[in-house]
TrEMBL record:
Pfam families: Cys_Met_Meta_PP (PF01053)
Organism, as annotated: Physocladia obscura
PANTHER family: CYSTATHIONINE GAMMA-SYNTHASE (AFU_ORTHOLOGUE AFUA_7G01590), TRANS-SULFURATION ENZYME FAMILY MEMBER
Similarity comment: family membership: Belongs to the trans-sulfuration enzymes family.
Magnesium in keyword set: no
Biological process according to GO: transsulfuration
Record keywords, A-Z: Pyridoxal phosphate
Protein name per Swiss-Prot or TrEMBL: Cystathionine gamma-synthase
Cross-referenced Gene3D superfamilies: Aspartate Aminotransferase, domain 1, Type I PLP-dependent aspartate aminotransferase-like (Major domain)
Superkingdom field: Eukaryota
SUPFAM superfamilies from the UniProt entry: PLP-dependent transferases
Sites bearing N6-(pyridoxal phosphate)lysine, chain numbering: K228
Listed GO MF terms: carbon-sulfur lyase activity; pyridoxal phosphate binding
Length: 425
């Protein structure tokens, strides 16, 4: 779609499926289709009043069905047969997602289903995974290894200081920014180290385009949990793998036809709807997160910040820890930050004292969330809360944090005073 390349990101989010062969309806808002199966195409002979199958020849029908697995393109006029192979909404969705990533996208029923599909497709013999990072990725890796005991699972952090190259059979998995503390990596440098067919896959769930163009930076494959920022409304579960070349995307779609991990009709429709506002949402979310991270990390500027900020031990956001690398990656950061409090008790209590931040896991939605990460991952320090910034006004969010921090500080101070009083009696 050469015309499409001249359009900017926000326009493509709304118009890159305009010319999709399946977009044949006059609806302005994409329609929702729920059918799992489709009639074989027929032609109608008005002269004799007979419906006639287009595939009158059995070999022709057979060729068409087999062709579904060979030619898994999303932008063809080929009729649908069964929704595990293709659907209108999913085809349009993958056209838009591919355009936004600068490649070709394949969608899945969840982020973890996308990770499982990537492992199944690349068939690594050495999986290099971050020790930190999303705990679920390790879960998928251990299931992958269950039937392949020869597969080695190595720790990414061990390769950060030693500049050895990766080789045939290696799959290097980066998470950008990484759970829970938002570290970022030099993708291009890792790509250069991938020799002889070693593959670099990046989980960019925390920094979707246009915050970061992961394929452009050199990743062979970018993965997203579309449950998070891409979906953006906390109402769908989904995953994406995007690659530069159509041939690899077609192979991934062929695999998916048999893995069966397709995104449901309703979810594909919700996600297509959500992508239309992606740029405005994630740009605002990362700007607000940057503002809040800077405020929490800086020495208190005003007397009313002195007490509340004293319960914050450290703030994690790439704009604070790795601003130069962020600039080099042309990345605009992320709407997620982490805060380490001075104790587990402070962290845990803050989650329950906020009014605008809901205490719930997940991230990327229009509603701000706060989550005590130790509940999911015992490798994470007890003082750490992950905060996902939504679309509420940033000053309202700061005021809510300030009030809750102060309440927690006072509550725990009077607790410890009580203890001292009890001891002294
Ligand atoms: C949520 C998440 C996943 C898993 O995605 P699901 O859609 O929940 O299966 C993977 N990676 C990261 C970074 C995530 O935040």
């Amino acid at each position: 779609m050469s015309e499409d390349e001249n359009l900017s990101f926000s326009t493509r989010a709304i118009h890159s499926d305009d010319n999709n062969a399946k977009n044949v309806f006059s609806d302005i808002s994409p329609p929702l289709h729920v059918s799992s199966t489709y009639k074989y195409p027929v032609s109608y002979n008005y002269d004799i009043g007979v419906r006639k199958g287009v595939f009158s020849d059995p070999d022709e029908l057979r060729k068409h069905i087999i062709g579904l697995n060979i030619n898994s393109e999303v932008d063809t006029a080929d009729p649908h047969v069964y929704s595990r192979y293709s659907t209108d909404t999913r085809d349009r969705l993958e056209t838009v997602l591919g355009s936004l990533e600068g490649g070709h996208a394949t969608t899945y029923s969840s982020g973890l289903a996308a990770i499982a599909a990537a492992f199944a497709f690349y068939q690594p013999t050495r999986l290099i995974l971050p020790h930190a990072g999303y705990f679920g990725t390790h879960g998928v890796a251990s299931i992958f290894r269950r039937s392949r005991p020869h597969v080695q699972i190595l720790v990414l952090e061990d390769f950060l200081e030693t500049y050895t190259d990766f080789g045939a059979g290696d799959l290097v998995w980066l998470e950008m920014p990484q759970n829970p503390n938002g570290e970022i990596y030099d993708i291009s440098a890792f790509r250069e180290r991938c020799k002889n067919g070693a593959v670099l896959v990046v989980d960019a769930t925390f920094s979707p385009p246009p915050l970061m163009y992961t394929l452009e930076l050199g990743a062979h494959c970018v993965m997203h949990s579309s449950t998070k920022f891409l979906g953006g409304h906390s109402d769908l579960l989904g995953g994406v793998l995007a690659v530069k070349d159509l041939e690899t995307a077609q192979k991934l779609r062929q695999d998916r036809s048999f893995l069966g991990s397709v995104m449901g009709n309703m979810e594909a429709w919700l996600l297509l709807r959500s992508l239309r506002s992606l740029e405005v949402r994630v740009t605002r979310q990362s700007e607000s997160a940057t503002t809040i991270a800077a405020w929490l990390a800086s020495p208190p500027q005003t007397p009313e910040d002195v007490k509340p900020l004293s319960i914050v031990a450290k703030v994690y956001h790439a704009t604070l820890q790795q601003p130069e690398l962020l600039a080099r990656l042309n990345s605009r950061g992320s709407g997620v930050l982490s805060v380490e409090f001075i104790s587990t008790e402070h962290a845990f209590l803050v989650c329950n004292r906020l009014r605008l931040f809901q205490n719930a896991t997940s991230l990327g939605g229009v509603e701000s969330l706060i989550d005590w990460r130790r509940a999911f991952d015992d490798k994470v320090s007890g003082g750490v809360c992950r905060i996902s910034i939504g679309l509420e006004n940033v000053e309202d969010l700061k005021a809510d944090l300030r009030r809750a921090f102060l309440e927690v500080k006072d509550a725990l101070k009077s607790e410890s005073e009580k203890k001292i009083n009890v001891q002294s009696i």
